[in-house]
């Protein structure tokens, strides 16, 4: 937070007004995601601190980082000639349902899934951007989310310790519903942000399904298996799960992500 800055010395030149509006919509959505993460982390921190002070402090710091992202995005939107806008109906519905979650395991699971698709979107969009300021903003978000995903995996595992089979079964229903909703999200988002990130509906949906599956498949602590019917509909195969490096939830990936400059974002 002390040394990371955004360089706006080179004006952002958009290919069209549609691309500019898409960029503003994209980073507005990112702002709302960071805002939600900040609120949920701070609310959970006090509860968790009662039974694990260090984990509670981790959640508080996690929320502070989300707050810093929100500040950067506010500045970035202003420099692009935009501002933070009210949420649209789809985003409002998602976060309204999210706020209604009361059980800790439901809150942290949902947050993990949101962080996963967020990091996926940033990483996929980064590949197609050339302007230095846009790439710098996406790089910050991508690198930090690389740590948030395994961090949230740890939160979910801790929240599920000692939980009954009924609780896990209930969580499984939530997991499948949220999984399907998030994979379908590109259908609504493409008309708004597609001109900026240049990602197609199926391309992004496959990316969401693949990365969500990589987080959950075979995790013995969480014990939630992604819906195979979605994988089949999107044409994903076993080869799509092959990794070109350590799994995102592995200790090696966590250690790398803790040092932000060591995180690749190609």
N-to-C series of helices and strands: HHHHHHHHHH
Give the biggest beta sheet: none
Strand content: under 5%
Oligomer: single chain
Helix segment tally? 10
Radius of gyration: 18 Å
Could you walk me through the main structural features you see in this protein, from its secondary elements to its overall organization?
The protein is mostly helical and 266 residues long. Helix content is 70%, strand content 0%. It has ten helices and no strands. It has helices spanning 17-49, 53-79, 89-99, 104-126, 132-160, 165-184, 186-197, 201-216, 228-233, 251-258. Helix 1 packs antiparallel against helix 4 and helix 4 (104-126) packs across helix 8 (201-216). The longest helix has 33 residues, at 17-49. The mean pLDDT is 84.
Can you lay out the helices and strands and say which pair or pack?
Layout: H1 17-49, H2 53-79, H3 89-99, H4 104-126, H5 132-160, H6 165-184, H7 186-197, H8 201-216, H9 228-233, H10 251-258
Helix pairs in contact: 1-2, 1-4, 1-7, 2-5, 4-5, 4-6, 4-8, 5-10, 6-8, 7-8
Key terms for this structure?
10 helices; 70% helix; 266 residues; globular; mainly alpha; 0% strand
In a few lines, what is going on in this structure?
With 266 residues, the protein is mostly helical. It has helices at residues 17-49, 53-79, 89-99, 104-126, 132-160, 165-184, 186-197, 201-216, 228-233, 251-258.
